[in-house]
Write a structure and sequence with these properties.
With 163 residues, the protein is α/β, with parallel strands linked by helices. The protein has a single domain, classed as Nucleotidyltransferase, domain 5, CATH 3.30.420. Helices cover 32% and strands 21% of the residues. The chain contains five helices and five strands; from the N terminus they run βββαβαβααα. It has a five-stranded mixed sheet with strand order 3-2-1-4-5, with helices on both faces. Keywords: RNA-binding. One of its GO terms (biological process) is DNA integration. One of its GO terms (molecular function) is RNA binding.
């Protein structure tokens, strides 16, 4: 049996995808909510734990409040400074082993859609991809899954996740 969180951003999946180098940016970090599948993301110059911590604090904790659990892989970017952040706010971090990579299946399928959306927005000039990261995540939140769900399951409605 799989449990479903009662509210949005109770369980968050984090992952980093590599992009072509452009204006010193090389990565996109993606956080996806388990309930609504809403995503948040940002372009990163590096995938160090400090960069991941800043993203998580600014775009997840400051927007949605404390989350119940954070699911990550065992990459070095999710250690050190990120681990300090998790400990500081007493957030449980679930680390996925290489033997169970499918456990990160909430965030992985969205990578292709986000990457394609970003690159197609560049209209052939791939060096501009960092300018379109926020647009791609906004479009992702407004379309696809969120449109098919009842209003109580979208993250923009009052009482989101309450039935």
């Amino acid at each position: 049996m799989v449990s479903t969180p009662a509210t949005i951003f109770t369980k968050v999946y984090l992952d980093i995808m590599e992009m072509p180098k452009a204006n010193s940016f090389k990565y996109v970090i993606a956080a996806r909510d388990d309930l609504s599948r809403a995503g948040e993301g940002r372009s990163l110059r590096n995938k160090k734990a400090k960069s991941v911590s800043i993203f998580f604090f600014e775009q997840i904790l400051c927007r949605y409040g404390a989350v119940g659990e954070v699911v990550t892989n065992n990459g070095p970017e999710f250690k050190e400074a990120f681990q300090l952040l998790m400990n500081r706010y007493k957030l449980p971090q679930i680390k996925i082993s290489a033997y169970n990579s499918k456990a990160n299946g909430v965030v992985e399928p969205g990578h292709f859609i986000i990457r394609e959306s970003i690159l197609r927005s560049c209209e052939g000039n791939v060096d501009k991809w960092p300018d379109y990261v926020q647009h791609a995540f906004f479009t992702d939140r407004c379309g696809r899954e969120s449109v098919r769900r009842r209003p109580t399951h979208t993250n923009s409605s009052p009482g989101a996740g309450v039935q």
